[in-house]
Amino acid sequence: MSDPFTVESRDDPHQGQPLETAGAPPEAADAVVILLYGRSSTAKNILRLIDEFHHHGVMYLAPQAARRMWYPRSGYAPFEDNEPWFSSALDRISKALNVAAAAGVPPERTLLLGFSQGGCLASEFVARNPRRYGGLVVLSGSLLGPEVREEYAGSIDDTPIFLGCSSDDPISPPLVFTRQHACLNGLVVR
């Protein structure tokens, strides 16, 4: 198992980082929640949230990021400024979905929940991989990059979405939140 402060591969910074688990074991899981934390936190730390909303039959998965961050620069910087960190982080979400699938839980029964950097990743992952998910919960996060991209295509119809931010949040201000809402809404109505 990897040290969260170590980067094993320059091309895939999050390679070898653990996937922390809690809740139902794979053979008893009816649903999965993938939890993605914010900068400077840890996978184990975000798993403490389940004490507030744990449900029987739910497996909780929390990928760990190298150096306790999903990407080194602002989420509003050009994508290339956060590579290869960004692609590596999205791959960790794909791998968590594969763990859910191996437990017999499809994306339709898998909810992605992210806070701050983790919320940005969850949003971006769903926008880039549109389909029906069990849900998307984004707390103080938004789509990544300096502007909304037109290349998002597909449908996330029937995916319940909760976007939460504060009017005085310096990282994800209401204007950014509105931009994300419009983009995700476009994926819902297609």
Question: What characteristics describe this protein?
Answer:
Phospholipase/carboxylesterase, Rossmann fold, single chain, hydrolase, PLipase/COase/thioEstase, 190 residues, AB_hydrolase_fold
Write a compact overview of the structure shown.
The protein is built from 5 helices and 6 strands, in the order ββααβαβαββα. The chain is an alpha/beta fold and 190 residues long.
Q: How would you describe what is shown here?
A:
InterPro entries: AB_hydrolase_fold, LYPA1-2/EST-like, PLipase/COase/thioEstase. Keywords: Hydrolase. Belongs to the AB hydrolase superfamily. AB hydrolase 2 family. The termini are far apart. This protein has helices at residues 43-47, 50-53, 85-102, 117-128, 174-189, and strands at 19-23, 31-36, 58-63, 110-115, 135-139, 161-164. The protein has one domain (19-189): 3-Layer(aba) Sandwich (Rossmann fold). The chain has a six-stranded mixed β-sheet with strand order 1-3-2-4-5-6. The mean pLDDT is 87. Helix 3 (85-102) packs across helix 4. The longest helix has 18 residues, at 85-102. The chain is an alpha/beta fold.
Tell me the layout of helices and strands.
Blueprint (H helix, E strand, L loop, with lengths): L18 E5 L7 E6 L6 H5 L2 H4 L4 E6 L21 H18 L7 E6 L1 H12 L6 E5 L21 E4 L9 H16 L1
Parallel strand pairs: 2-3, 2-4, 4-5, 5-6
Antiparallel strand pairs: 1-3
